[in-house]
Amino acid sequence: MRVLPMLFNTEMVKAILDGRKTCTRRVLKHPFEVHPNGFITKPHGNDRLCPYTPPYQPGDILYVRETWSEIRNADGSHKKYVYKASDQYPFGESGYIIKFKWKPSIHMPKEAARIWLKVTDVRVERLQDITEVGAINEGCIDDIEFAKGKSARNHFAALWNTTIKKPDIDIYGWSANPWVWVIEFERCEKPGKENIND
Fold it and tell me: What gap in Å lies between CA 105 and CA 113, rounded to an integer?
């Protein structure tokens, strides 16, 4: 069993906490080749037919990296971690606001992780093959207030494009219909040290 990090934005962390998100899609990075039989290869050196191994496998444990911060005591020692998806001002037992800056998810250490996921399935498909049910499993919902009256699938398409950097939108954006890893997961407990092999 491997223990690996995975980044999620604040909206998707909220969906995981609410129990609405049980799946995520991540792009296959170029160059690669998908063969008619479904086999995926990625060039390595002079060999163009090396297997393209999924970044995650069933049984892997993921710890969620999310927007976070750390509150410290006056002496500089750790007090507690806080998370943008669920923690709001003010913090502090006496009602005062403890000032700090949110830190990006990429910088969150493993010891700050509070959400653990077990990978249950990994497959590959084109992004636009997502169904309405698939979009709901991604944490999107068909709701007038939340998705502006659009379907969960349309909401997912709009949300997807917000996660792609502008220089890459023509390659990995919704309209480009890239190949993606579909990674299904379920919430789990933090693994004990004796079960970790990362």
Answer: 10
66: number of Cβ within 10 Å: 27
Which residue range is the domain that position 26 belongs to? 3-64+113-188
Please work out, in degrees rounded to the nearest 5, the angle formed at the alpha carbon of residue 59 by the alpha carbons of 160 and 140: 25
CB 58 within 8 A of CB 123: no
Q: How confident is the chain (198 residues) per 10-residue block, as mean pLDDT? A: 94 95 95 88 88 94 96 83 83 57 94 98 96 94 59 90 92 96 97 64
pLDDT value at residue 175: 97
Residue 196 lies in a domain: no
Name the β-bridge partners of 6.
64
* Whole-number Å distance between alpha carbons of 7 and 13: 9
Q: What is the chain's percent helix, strand, coil content, to nearest 5?
A: 25, 30, 45
| Domain total in the chain | 1
Residue pair 180/127 in contact (Cβ under 8 Å)? The answer is: yes
| Model confidence, pTM | 0.86
Q: State how far the Cα of 94 lies from the Cα of 87, in Å rounded to an integer.
A: 17
Task: Give the list of residues 6+ apart from residue 123 with CB closer than 8 angstroms, or none.
Answer: 181, 182
